[in-house]
Amino acid sequence: MNDKSDITMDTNMDNKRSDKDDQQTNKSSSEADNQDNIQDNTNSVFDFSSFGQYYLDQLNQVNQVNKSLFNQANKSSQASNLFAENMKLWQESVDRFSNMMAPNSTQSVSTQESHQQDDTQESSGNPMADFTQMTQRFLMESLKRVGQDQSNEISQSVMLNLIDGWQHFTTGVTEESPTVLAEQQAKLWKQQFELYQQALMKASGNQTDPVITPERGDRRFTDEDWSNNPMFDYLKQSYLLTVNNIMQTIDDTEGVDEKTRQRLSFFTRQLLNAIAPSNFLWSNPELLRLTMESKGQNLVRGLKQLTEDMENSSQMLSISMTDNDAFELGENIATTPGKVVFRNRIFELIQYTPTTDKVNKRPLLIVPPWINKFYIMDLKEKNSYIRWALEEGHSVFIMSWVNPTPAYKDVGMETYMHEGLLTALDVVKEITGEPDANTIGYCIGGDLLALTLSWLNENDQADRIASATFWATLFDFSDPGEIGVFIDERMINTLEEVEDKQGVLDGRMMGLAFSLLRENSLYWNYYIQNYLKGERPMPFDLLYWNSDATNVTAASHRFILRELYQGNKLIQKGELEFDGIKIDLSKVKTPIYVIATLQDHIAKWKGSYPSTQVLGGDVTFVLGESGHIAGIINPPTGKYGFYTNEDYVADPDEWYANAQKHDKSWWLHWREWIKKHSAGKVDSRQPGIDHKGKDWQVLSDAPGEYVKVRADEALNAASI
Q: In whole angstroms, what is the distance from residue 330 CA to residue 529 CA?
């Protein structure tokens, strides 16, 4: 699903650009053409001396912001700051190299004030230099706002968590691992000196082996000049040495609890990846070459796209990852035929048009997560789970959740159950005449399904659901993966304050948080592509869905964070009070099928596996390959297999060690399992006709109206 072959270009998208855009581009091109010597000027600007100085300027500015933030939090502490100390080592190393390449340079790098770019400074007359200064100011202002903007509560909490992490870490260094920092510093000095010597040799035309190479899969330094050009090779290796040193020290220091270490590692990684030399025009050889060749037109296009993205962003910059104009729901994405047969304030119910003459007697109801939109199951025909299920003879119904407005502030999990899942079961029963249904719950939709199963059992209604399938659903939230770094008392309090004001969590913020779990591939890669290369994002259906965010109501988000993630109460008998009952999954006897995925970083499979221990009925657990999306949406033509082991021991590692690998899609395994719960065959059911042959209301064609409402539109609306 993630292959580049899946990416198609809409040949008509350029027709949507306005005449004004064309005029601006022509104007910029004309201005560039009038400067006949711009390329020569650019070459002179980016010689060894000035290039090194630009880079040192940026490093000094980053370090200055870092020091000011930590000084504010540690006014009474004289403890060493590992981040600042290592950044200083890196700067001094680059300083030596810069002086070697430009020995006559008179500009001192030790005076921070000499490098600060005043906002009122006049243009240098060189477009490249002006853009460099503007980029520096933009990025530095972004960093400053993270720590200083009082109106950005979420970003401020993130920075405070980082500072707290460094305080705990400093205590650990001082009290438990006093020699670790000194050893790491000495190691870095030795490596930097070795690199410095090799850089001298390489600059003289000698071949040398690298001191360090990028990790496998790191695509930031693939351009040949990162290795062939002595200067860029030095910057790359110096950066990688510094990053590895800092991250290794965090891992090696004793006296730090694992949650603090995980949080510190995550946020430190974010800072270090943000200042990678690949992210800046003047330290990325590919960007420099492109800018020279295009005479700066890539920057003109990039600024335009940056402006557009900032206008469409929430508190933090959300970068466009695909061409949103290339897709239209119901036209070239989410195209499986069907009808909306019910609508209330919480969801629309879609009944899909059958593709077989006979269908399973027992209908299939899908409960997607409301933090995403349902059409991940129907991106295109070849990988659409909905189409495949229809071809397998299922009567498919799916819930399309509303994108909540601020008016939905008090809509909580109980409402999602009563006005959502239980209502959907009622409507499916009225249409099909069947007293029960097979159900599928995806991610947080699966958690709603689990709560509902327990509620139905306690209210003597367990027979309304014949079977339940869980896709990538957490039961044990004790280790939620990297998303857990955002979940602690300070962050939850901050989110609750924000949501109390605006009624919902802006879905764009949540989307950004998930992107930052894979920041180099899902954030900085597109930052470079869109703003520095000036390229338009390619049309990609998966990324279109990924950016089509949904808001989360304040009440439901509070429940998820407090009761599930923080309290981990779902698997604890009687600890979770929910709509008048105490949740006890051991009493649930419904047949269960659980599919988790090996590389899932959102719902870790070891958090899904405990379903085999806590649910009281017959549970089948399957572990698919790949991750949260690709491992689940893996049709029979897909490339990922799965693991099975019917001996459900308590230890998931032991289960996995003895599991059998199957080189085919888990869909085929589920097909055999669900046959046992399908109750035979009946004539196919057409949307708009109930089981008695009478007309049933049809409100619209699939994919419906709720799915078309975007997060920002809902956020700015009083109601839908």
A: 29
Mean pLDDT of 387-413: 97
- Whether the CB-CB separation of 211 and 237 falls below 8 Å is answered with yes
**Residue 151 — pLDDT band, cuts 50, 70, 90?**
very low
The conformation of residue 708, written as its DSSP 8-state character, comes to: G
Residue with tokens 């019910």: 342
Structure tokens at 428: 């499916």
Residue 268 is predicted with a pLDDT of 79
Residue pair 542/383 in contact by the 8 Å Cβ criterion: no
For the entire predicted model, the pTM comes to 0.77
- The neighbour count for residue 347, using CB atoms within 10 Å, is 25
Classify 347 as helix, strand or coil.
Answer: strand
Amino acid at the residue 171: T
pLDDT digits (tens, 9 = 90+) for 513-550: 676 667 777 788 888 998 889 998 888 898 899 889 89
Residues marked active site are found at 443
Q: What is the mean pLDDT of the chain?
A: 79
How far apart (Å, rounded) are the C-alpha atoms in residues 61 and 103?
A: 23
Q: What is the DSSP annotation of 220-231?
A: TT-STHHHHSHH
- Contact between 170 and 80 under an 8 Å Cβ cutoff? The reply is yes
- Reduced to 3 states (helix: H, G, I; strand: E, B; else coil), residue 123 is coil
Q: Are 146 and 156 in contact (CB under 8 A)?
A: yes
Q: Are the C-beta atoms of residues 56 and 91 closer than 8 Å to each other?
A: yes
Q: How many helices (H) and strands (E) does the chain have?
A: 27, 17
404-423 exposure pattern, b = at least 16 Cβ within 10 A, e = fewer: bbbbbbebbbbbbbeebbeb
Report CA 206 to chain centroid distance, whole Å.
43
What are 636's two structure tokens?
Answer: 């029979």
Tell me the C-alpha to C-alpha distance, in Å, between residue 506 and each of 28, 206, 550, 574, 587.
36, 55, 8, 32, 37
Beta strands at 592-597 and 465-471: parallel, antiparallel or unpaired: parallel
Q: How far apart are CA 71 and CA 77, in angstroms?
A: 9
- How many whole angstroms separate alpha carbon 314 and alpha carbon 309? 10
What value does the mean pLDDT take over residues 288-297? 86
**Distances from the Cα of 5 to the Cα of 523, 526, 540, angstroms:** 21, 19, 10
Q: Assess whether pLDDT exceeds 90 at residue 718.
A: no
Structure tokens that stand for 221 in this block: 């330094």
pLDDT in tens, 85-97: 544 554 554 454 4
CA distance 521 to 511: 14
Question: For 176-232, what is each residue's pLDDT tens digit?
Answer: 666 766 777 788 778 878 888 888 888 788 888 899 999 988 899 999 999 988 888
Backbone angles phi, psi at 664, to 5 degrees: -160, 175
